[in-house]
Write a structure and sequence with these properties.
Helix content: 55-70%
Low-confidence stretches: 1-12
Number of strands: 0
Distance between the termini: 24 Å
Order of helices and strands: HHHHHHHH
Shape: globular
Number of domains: 1
Number of helices: 8
Structural class: mainly alpha
Radius of gyration: 18 Å
Largest sheet: none
Length: about 210
């Protein structure tokens, strides 16, 4: 099983194609796959509703925009820690290695599988509900704006992750730099380069 807390062994190096993870359960296999268009279809309306709720509660436009910006920035920090400590936790038992491979190792072994480049909504929706409740319970009505920004960050992350794996040429120097950063995480050392939508926090934490 692929131990992605260390550099990937040669015999488990990234491969082309895709992997059927649940051969005996087509339903689970389908749930493990998702296209970026599904993320947009689900979360763009959620972001719009959260923004409207923030504004409808009397929050000014500039304040709402500030909350959205703050939520998006907070997402980049959450993304870094989630990728580093959840997707790359240090597995020590066969069962933990199996879990690790299921949640993220399969992406490292088959990095260009187009249906496993964004988080399945069966995972992202419960997380979205959890964070939405957390933000609103701690920030009141302002939490809706912050949650909208968090959603913007998440959608941007998923779209960026898909793009860095499938867009080979770009006129954007920033995109090329982000792509090189993420490819180094895949092909050089999986213990470094945990930011996907941004490499800022990798520089802050020297990873």
């Amino acid at each position: 099983m692929n131990d992605i807390s260390r550099p990937i062994p040669e015999h488990l190096a990234p491969q082309q194609g895709e992997l059927i993870m649940f051969e005996n359960n087509p339903f689970l296999e389908r749930l493990s796959r998702i296209r970026p268009s599904t993320v947009l279809a689900v979360y763009l309306p959620v972001i719009a509703v959260a923004t409207w709720l923030c504004l409808s509660k009397g929050t000014g436009v500039l304040t709402t925009l500030g909350l959205i910006l703050a939520g998006a920035i907070f997402w980049t920090l959450f993304e870094y820690f989630f990728h580093r400590f959840f997707f790359h936790f240090n597995a020590t038992t066969p069962f933990q290695h199996k879990i690790l491979f299921t949640i993220h190792g399969v992406h490292h072994q088959y990095p260009n599988d187009k249906d496993r480049l964004v988080m399945p909504i069966t995972v992202s929706i419960p997380l979205a509900i959890l964070f939405g409740l957390l933000f609103v319970s701690t920030m009141g009505d302002l939490g809706w704006g912050f949650f909208a920004g968090f959603g913007v960050g998440y959608v941007s992350y998923d779209m960026m992750h898909y793009a860095v794996h499938h867009v080979q040429n770009s006129n954007s120097a920033l995109f090329r730099k982000i792509r090189r950063h993420h490819m180094a995480h895949h092909y050089r050392d999986t213990r470094l380069g945990f930011g996907v939508s941004s490499y800022f926090w990798d520089r802050v934490f020297r990873t």
